[in-house]
């Protein structure tokens, strides 16, 4: 079973929030995840200048350590957050 780290979309239209989850690759986007690792709210509230991501770094590193593959969007978020991930290229 391949585990992916990806975003699950929640909330009403025009007011979405995204959960960073560890989930089986074959499951649909909003299926029940193995574990919820964080939350990303892309909206800026009045007075805020930066978007924030709340996540558990230890659990993300654990999942990456056991072979979970992040999606491209999650990979970009991890790079911006300073969590280094090296993509493993398939052997030919």
UniProtKB/TrEMBL annotation:
Protein known as: 30S ribosomal protein S16
Pfam families reported for this sequence: Ribosomal_S16 (PF00886)
Alphabetical list of InterPro entries matching this protein: Ribosomal_bS16, Ribosomal_bS16_dom_sf
Gene Ontology MF terms in the entry: structural constituent of ribosome
Organism: Grifola frondosa
Gene3D superfamilies, per database record: 3.30.1320.10
Entry similarity comment: Belongs to the bacterial ribosomal protein bS16 family.
Keywords noted in UniProt: Ribonucleoprotein, Ribosomal protein
Positions of transmembrane segments: none
Keyword Ribonucleoprotein tagged: yes
Designated gene of the protein: rpsP
NCBIfam families registered for this protein in UniProt: S16 (TIGR00002)
Gene Ontology CC annotations of this record: mitochondrial small ribosomal subunit
Example of a GO biological process term: mitochondrial translation
């Amino acid at each position: 079973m391949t585990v992916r780290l990806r975003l699950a979309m929640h909330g009403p239209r025009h007011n979405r929030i995204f959960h960073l989850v560890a989930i089986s690759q074959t499951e649909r986007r909003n299926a029940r995840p193995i574990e919820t690792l964080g939350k990303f709210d892309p909206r800026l509230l009045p007075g805020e200048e930066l978007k924030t991501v709340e996540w558990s770094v230890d659990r993300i590193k654990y999942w990456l350590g056991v072979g979970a593959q992040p999606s491209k969007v999650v990979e970009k978020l991890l790079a911006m957050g300073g969590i280094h991930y090296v993509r493993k290229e398939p052997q030919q």
